[in-house]
Amino acid sequence: DEDGPWFYVDSGASCHQVKSLEGFSSPECTSCKELVRYNDGSTKQITKTCKVNELGKVKLIPGSTHNLLSVSQLIDDKDCSVVFTKSGVNSVKNGLATSIGIRSGNMYVSTIPHKAFFSIRPSSNPLYLLHVRLGHVSPMHIIKALLNKTLLISPYHSMDKKVLSKKLRKWLEEFHICATCGVSKITRHSIKKILSQPANSPMHTLHLDRCGPSSTSREGFKYWLPVVDGYSAHTVPLFTADATSASLAREFSRVIGGILLRLRKIGIYYISHLKSDNEKAIIHGEMKRTCEALGIRFYPVSAPYRSRQNGKAERQIRTITEMVRVSMKHYGAPANEWAHAIRHACHHLNRIPKAILRYNTPYALFWSTVSPGLDYLRPFYCPVFCKTDAPLSKTKRFLPVGFLGNLLGYPKGSQIHHTYLVRVKGKAQPVVVRNVYFVEDLVEAKRINALQDTNGRTLSSGGVRIKDNSGEDRYLMVDLDRNSVLRSSNVDSDSVLRSSNVDRNSVLIDAKSVQPTPPVTDDDKQQSILNVRKLRANRGVPPNRIGINYGLISKIMNHEFNGKVDIHEVFSLLASSKVYVPKSHWDALRCIDKNDWLKASSIEIGKLERMNAWTVVKRPEGKKIMNLMFTCAVKTNEKGDVTEKKARLVARGDTQRPGIDYKETFSPTVKQANVRLIIMLSVLLGLDIMQFDFASAFLYASLQIPVLAEPPPGLLLADDECLLIKRALYGMCNSSREWYLLVSKEFKLLGFKASRLDSCLYYRRSGTDIQLLGLHVDDGILAGPKQLNLDMINKLKLKYKLKAEPLRWYLGMHIKFSKDRTMVSLSMEAYIVKLAEKYRVVDSKRVSTPLEPGIILSRNKGKRTDAPYLELVGALIYLMCAVRPDISFAVHRLSKYMSNPSDMHWMCAKRVLTYVFHTKSLGIVYSKAKDVSKLSEVRLTGYCDSDGHGDVDKRRSTTGYLIMMSGNVLYYKACTQSIAVDNMCEAEFISGCTATHELVYFDNILSTMCEDMKLQRDVKPMKLFVDNNAAIKVASSYELSGRSKHLEKKFWHLKDKVHYGDLTVHHIRSEENP
Predict the structure, then answer these.
(1) 10 compared with 942, residue with greater pLDDT
(2) Which long-range contacts (CB under 8 A, 24 or more apart) does 880-883 make?
(3) Under DSSP, is residue 493 helix (H, G, I), strand (E, B) or coil?
(4) d(CA 890, CA 873)
């Protein structure tokens, strides 16, 4: 439009040229008689050289048809760079890009009027906009809350986590320092904190402090007092006009008394303590009598003039003050609106996830409910267009249907009905409205505020970019002279890009994705879910899962990074979280499926009472009392699907004292190799095999020394009563030992005998039949004739509650039998998939080997890393020991660097996991041997090898050996030799000695088993295969050669076994050595 206040951006113009000075403020002009020459050869007279605030020096050329913006003068005056793109032109200074114009055909046209041309415009980074909208909270808190799906803002809560993490990483790199925060949050150096014991439940401790006097607010207040809940940090502000105890007591009774009454009506009764700084108006007079009437006891902790001892209230005051300061400055709110700004800040703080609360919100923690949606939150005092809700009469149908105001806050129930409290100029009281449109853009908001007069009317007209109360982005054409809405339409993505100069993929709000209205804050979960589903059905938005993985975030903040946050690992670990498991009773109360967890906890308490686990006794004086707590867990099947939710009452064993509360703690479990031995023998001997699980096993064992404990959550006792624990609860240091002593005695009564080499491997003989049993804490595996197995299970059920079924899933291993039960396979697919998702290797390329061929690992290669190396290698070790002998060597090499891992070691560990994931169906297979029909015919064979100085750090060799029983893999291992050797003969001989130790161990197990069950065992020597002839010669003779005489005596065990005929050593080609 040639008559509008627009410029053509011209790189050939030598100076800024205007056709008139209309619209510029206070131009300083001097006469000029210069000529300007154009490309077509024509000239025009320059009449004046003017200096204006908006552009600097400009040349006035009457009769000119266009306003020209000189690129060269812009670069010189503003010391910036000008970048032309396909969509527009930007000025770049100090890394901050500002939009100058858009492309129209083959020309670049300025889109910003004179007055706003060079005004400071905030970054259009969506992360910055969220930072402003949520009250200038930390960008890192926003990122973690968005990734964890706790900050319910469209469209991010419905985005794919990989896409969202990529966008957030880009926005974080482009995020610059917020100038408003810089000038509003600057603080002095902090002083040393004085810590106090934290509260353990909502409303248990209230922190209170008074601020003022301040300038009189619009409502007549001069003082304000934040009441901070010590458990949840939920803050309620109180306002008074004077400093008397009576006025404070009235306000305290009205607000806090109402909250206590509401909590007690729903069955939650708390004895509250009030912590203050000993101010007389708080701890004396009417305030004291009011607190005593409400059942609140005073607990003063701060001495006079020592406000730091009331640190929680003081810190919250500082947070609220900073938030109010930036909120009022951002949109230019008047000083007398500070009371509404405090209410607005507290409303936001109570609904923003906090790191100290494991990224839960104070609101959800305080009211024991789910976090509400946050789409309705808007910045304080931002301009809003409001529609009049009252119907217009026929005589007023052509008058304006709306008015302009500023947002003050949210009335009660605003998160349900989406209503807002708006200040309208010219009216004494704020109004509550519902149909509102927000102007959040800082430049346009300041322009609208400046154009308003005292009656709420405006003095010019134009277009405004707004967001309505549903979060939808709109461009509103307003006749500001009559204050009426003329046209409202949805904004297409191109117009958004043109106005805000952001990338097409980083637009803040997508018009097709709207956050559903959050559920009603009510304890009735079913009604809340019905309300949410009804709203979702009406709006066509898929439901989102509500749940927070607090444990994962705790690992990220405290363990994985040792307090240092690596944002890339945060993205990777948070994106892998799936199932939310509460960490405590209070966590269970505020999750969406709290009824399931409460039911599980009530079942647990009922079970303990039926088993007479405790008795109620008088609380003795001077005795140490142990605490009890609930832990929640989910049970999964072999596919990883949740089959059961369990709540278990456990004891705080860390408070037990050795020698006083218990004596011994050791309790054995069956070795994993012996579990495979039982499964293998069941296939070789044709035995039926099943698994059984004792329910609440520890509770059957009685304590030798009873202990005192506090009542658990949900069990109400008098103040002078406590529990005397008589059963072995989970969590006690000696519980597992008491259970082992009980169950081992029970097995002996049933005729079983424990092996002398493994205390949890049992066997017995009944006629010609034999039974084998292995026990891992409360999970057992039983092999034998089917009828004998059922008889034994039935006898155990007479005393214990247990679950028995055919063997399918044991210690993480998925066990599959063939139809004729002559073959069985062991694998851990579900465990591998879980690891791959956790460490994000699901989409990685397939590799053919665990480690790259020829790679040399050393302590000195690579840089130190904070990645969770120990956790990953530990998981690989468990997987290797269970069913994956093919990664033994790789895992052994990686496990040597667990004390000081580097980035190279981390990449190798992830490669091993990648290999395992793409071969997750592999495992160990056992098949029936034709020449074995009874236990005495089982034969042991060993294979060993050495790599020869494979350890470059200590110059030692690596031993690898494999033990097989009748053609099936029984045991395998890779380890570093204890001494350095001179040649391969010595290395192979030492590896043969190490393999001999394991052969003798398993041979002794079979021999003692046959001896105890009075079975005749055929005495045949074991076989050991070595691929080095020199080592075989050294093993077969006691003669000392010059190259072997220095070997230690402990390696002569192989010579002894060969000499006495218990073992024969054979040669095998390297290509055939497994």
Answers:
(1) 942
(2) 881/672, 882/672, 882/811, 882/812, 882/813, 882/826, 882/828, 883/813, 883/826, 883/827, 883/828, 883/923, 883/924
(3) helix
(4) 10
Q: Which residues contact 197 (CB under 8 A, 6 or more apart)?
A: none
| Distance of alpha carbon 411 from alpha carbon 497, whole angstroms | 35
946, 988 Cβ separation under 8 angstroms: yes
Q: Is 765 helix (H, G, I), strand (E, B) or coil?
A: strand
Q: What phi, psi does 971 have (nearest 5°)?
A: -150, 150
DSSP label of 155? T
Q: At what angle do helices 567-574 and 161-174 cross, to 10 degrees?
A: 160
- Summarised one tens digit per residue, pLDDT across range 740-756 is 999 999 999 999 999 99
| Contacts (Cβ under 8 Å, ≥6 apart) of 790 | none
CA distance 386 to 433: 7
**C-alpha atoms less than 13 angstroms from C-alpha of 1013 in its C-beta half-sphere:** 27
Is the previous residue joined to 155 through a cis bond, with omega within 30 degrees of 0? yes
Residue 358, token pair as written in the block:
């494991």
What are the φ/ψ torsions at residue 235 (nearest 5 degrees)? Answer: -120, 130
Three-state DSSP at 942 gives: strand
Amino acid identity, position 619: R
Rounded distance between C-alpha atoms, residue 465 and residue 453, angstroms? 21
Measured in whole angstroms, the distance separating CA 925 from the mean position of its chain's CA atoms is 38
Residue 273's φ and ψ, nearest 5 degrees, are -115, 140
**What confidence tier does 846 reach under pLDDT thresholds 50, 70, 90?**
very high
- Structure-block tokens of residue 959: 């031993």
- pLDDT tens by residue, 571-594: 444 444 456 788 777 777 777 777
Whether the pTM exceeds 0.85: the reply is: no
For the sheet with 462-468, list strands across it: 431-433, 420-423, 402-409, 383-387, 436-438, 462-468, 473-479, 484-490
